[in-house]
Amino acid sequence: MIEKTEKYVFFNSINDIVSSEVSEYIKTIGYTPVIAGAGIDLSSGGGVNNFLDQYKNNLAGAVLANPPVTLMRGGVEDTTDEMWTNAKNIFAVPMLNITQVIGKILSRNKKGSIIYLNSIHAEKPVGNGFLYTAGCAAVQALCREAALIYGSHNVGCYNIMRGIVEGEETYFTSDYSSIHHNGELRFPKEKLPSANSLNELCAFLLSGGAYILNGTDLYADEGFRLYYGKSGYYR
Known about the structure:
By secondary structure, the protein is α/β, with parallel strands linked by helices. The chain is 31% helix and 15% strand.
């Protein structure tokens, strides 16, 4: 039998390097990660609901990671109707279904958090990742809408717009732009953030004290978006 004192946090995946780090970190502060396995149909609300049924009374929140950009390569002129449909079914549709299920559970509990580990590429083009950026933008909009619906039940929804971290050096490189080539040079400290750099932010967002940020886009790219070249004056 599940102890009532447990606090569970649902993860749609820990294949993403950041969500994997977060799932390990929250164990140290009293949460138990519940990770969707390969047999869980995330494209079906019923599948998610059945999986979470045993945890629902003690569900504290969810951390939802984007699928990898490598599944959605292709520029605007390369994209076909079939590619668009496939991308929607592995990105936006599962995110919507999970949000609906988690949102209803947490609303009944009158507390909790839905954290989207999204990307700055909801707003910043990739070049050869149009389908990925479209999915990121859909999740950004989903968070805002969910914040209105579930926020009335004390459920916080947060959209983390993260950049690349160590281990993701080649994720967004393309022939369209050099911005991600030697990407560490685009950060103020000229080094990539560590993979665990979002652990404490996610821990805070799981707490009740974060609700004032409900519906907010939280830019967590360590200044990458601000890159404008360097003169070397301060070196």
